[in-house]
Every structure is written in C-alpha cells, then in structure tokens.
# Entry
Amino acid sequence: MVVKMNALTVSQVYVGMFSNYLEQIQSRYPDKHFNPIVLPTTSSSNCDRLSISSVESLVSFIAEATNNKSFGLDIGEHIHPSDYGIFGYAMMNCSTLSQAAELVVNYGSLLNQAFNVTLTEVGDNIHFQLESSSVNSASYILVELYLSSVVQLARFLAGAQNCEDVVMSEVRFKHTALTDTDKYHRVFKCPVRFNQSVNEIVVTKNVLSQNIRSASPKMFLMLLKKMMRSVDEMNHNVSFSKKVSSFVEANINDQTLPSAPIAAKHFNISMSTLKKHLHQENLNYTSICDDVRKKMAVKMLTCSSDQFQNISDYLGFSNSSAFHRAFKRWTGMTPAEYRRNSVSAQAL
# Structure
C-alpha cells in the first residue's frame, strides 16, 4: 500500500532536539553558522505537528551542514525524558521498563506517524521492532535517533544504581552503517548489525522487568489521559486508508480478515462511501487487505518459527499453495527462501 508521506506528521519535539544539537555544534565550532530552524506546521488545527517531509528535509540539511550523517546517535545518546515532552514524562511514571515499552508501542505515533513499533516475544527475548513508512534516506537518521533514545531512556529510567544492568542483547538496522561501526558499539554497548530484514532492539524479558525509579501511578494515569486526547485529536489527520489498514490488522479473527461491509459498519459509513474514500487515495479494500497480509506474513516468518501452514491459516488463505503464490508475488521469494535469507542475515 502506498502511504502518502505528506499526510504523515511528527511532533515538534524533534525541532527542539535539532535546535539544541546545532547550538552545541555552534558553541564548539564558532566559525560555523547555521540558520535558525523555522518549519511550517501542518494545515490542521493541531498546531504542534509538523509534516514528515519538512522534518526529513531538516535532517538532510543538518547532516550536510555538519558533515555528520550519524548525528541521530549523538542526540539519542544524551537524550533526557523531558526532551520528549509529555511522552517522556509519562515514561518516567511507568512502573517497569516493560510498561514503558508498551507505552511506546501504543502511543509512539504521537512522536512520529511514519514509525510503527511492535513488540514480539521470541523465547526469553523481546524484539522491539521499528518499521518506517518512509523510503527517504533521512529516515535512517531518524531511526537511529529513535532506537538510541530507547536504549538511553531505558538506562535513565532504571536509575544510576541499576543502569549497568540495562544491557541490550543486539541491535539491528535495515540500512548500512552511516559512520564507523565503533560508534554504534559505544552508543548501544552491544553487538550491532546492519543490512538486516528489520530495525529492532533485542532484549531479554529480565531486563524489561526492572522497576522504574520514583514512578507515580497517579501521575501516569493523568498523563495517559492527556496522551489519549492527543491521539484522538491527531487521528483526525490520519488518512482514511491508514485507519482502515489498522482496523483490518487488529481484527483478524478465526483465520478470516474482516470483510468490507464489516469495515464500513465499524466506521459507521455505507459501502459506497467506503469505496469512495479509498478511491480518492487510489486504493481499494482488497489492496489494503493484501498489504496487511504481506506485512503480517513477513513479520511472522522473520520473528517466529511457525509452520507455513499455520501462517497461511492465520492469514485466511484457502490453502498453503495460495499463500506461497501470494508471498512470491509480494517479495519475489517463497516463504522458505525468505525465512532462510532472514536467518542467514541475522547470523552475520
């Protein structure tokens, strides 16, 4: 499914991070001069949002001006929860690192709508996976900022006495290294792999079970309510096709995807209106379901050892042959080839 990037938004907290970073560079190198950061907000009534395209343009400008494509790591390495505004304060009041991770999954769109975060349990490990809708190379820098922030915040939240116990098992990036790999190892303090099938942090359940210092359940609930209101407001600006895609993915039941009439009923509109709205985005309900199946099939093949028949059944295919044909159409590979390549890449 083609995502209209100009319809996606990010929080202005990024502008604060980038401004602070440039100020630090300016103080260290007085001969360098950077223009003040001025970005247009989106056309919505939610004035604290910025278009993803404008932020990616800013990221490209900073990378070129500073000759540093890995500045996302620099920012993330020294991040503080307050840099993320209400989101960061909510994390500070979670009871455990696991609850903080769930907060990122459920409300991470407040920071960047181009990112989708999922948690997958594999044995004793949790895979914190980050998928980006953007294909712009600037998104690599934002991915590195996001994942390095996650690691730094986890260490901060655990407290000075326990931060050394917050050790990631491995970090994986889909892109190639943007700088010397020694820098990644210094920031993440664990093995870091590139050109992988997913962007992810692998961490043990034991690490995520750690308590967060000075957490206040009462404060957390208050902040959570504010975040829920922010999500409701922001969702008015989410494309209709993205809402439909999220509905389909969340409502796969009894090996069946929800039908178009069920989706129309969910959104309290007629079938003709459903088709009309999707047609305006050059999409249809079948293509959205196909994209959801692809996304989930890739995830299940990469992060689980489920048999192909089980994956086929779960995604509602009539038989395993239909699943194999569809998967090869999506990726150019059979499910077996894809899983084998994924395992080989992760073992490098």
Summary: The chain has two domains: 68-219, 239-347. Residues 49 and 103 are 20 Å apart (CA to CA). The mean pLDDT is 86.
